[in-house]
Amino acid sequence: MELNQIKNDQELYNKLIQEVPYRIILVNSRHSVLTYNSMAQELCENISCYNRNITDPVSTFVKNTISGIINDQTNTSMLNVNGRSYNLNIVSSFVFNAHDNLDKYFLIYMNKPGTLYTDPNILLASTYNLTGRELEIVELIANGLNNKEIADKLFISFNTVRKHVENIRDKVGAKNRATVLHKLGKSI
To answer: Which long-range contacts (CB under 8 A, 24 or more apart) does 127-130 make?
Structure first.
């Protein structure tokens, strides 16, 4: 029963980290990446898009960009990547291991400046089960961008944007982009 509970807890943890509307990376005390969500992976892939030889962009990002600023305290700083700024927050935590020793972990989360945990997008994400990427696309739609402009801005294909918009419409129960924005309380 304990193993089953551990498995259920692990599945819940993995689901939560994937659906939070922030870029999340969890590393251990040796700065090895333990897990991350798809938004963090996309950012790290975009950063390394000029170097096709990188097989693990998240670990490379942590090693080259974040390892030098991880310390024992909570650390908040600004990160500039490819002309975009992100708030970078690193929170350290201790967890007991199987030998009753404390292991240190660092939770790294990145978000756009001005985005707080009280961001109404979190409510939208939970109400309509929108992913972080879908929330980004909703914001870009609200800014008046078309699918091609969104694709260019996010460094993804036009078809990927189209599929995201279709998924957003389905989740929100809207027939068009204007209705999506209306239901989500956004305006152009």
So the answer is: 128/171, 128/172, 128/184, 129/19, 129/171, 130/21, 130/168, 130/171
Tens-digit pLDDT profile for the chain (188 aa)? 878 887 887 787 777 777 777 788 888 888 889 888 888 888 887 776 556 667 788 888 888 877 777 765 556 777 776 677 777 888 777 777 777 778 888 888 887 665 544 455 555 666 678 887 888 899 899 889 999 999 998 889 999 999 999 999 999 899 999 888 888 777 66
Query: Are the beta carbons of 79 and 85 closer than 8 angstroms?
Result: yes
pTM above 0.85, yes or no: no
Would you state the structure tokens that stand for residue 145, as one six-digit string?
């961008």
Contact 144, 134 (CB under 8 A): no
Asked whether 46 and 82 are in contact (CB, 8 A), the reply is yes
Q: Are 113 and 86 in contact (CB under 8 A)?
A: yes
Q: In this structure, are residues 109 and 36 in contact, taking their beta carbons and an 8 Å threshold?
A: no
115, with CB counted inside 10 A (0-12, 13-18, 19+), is: middle
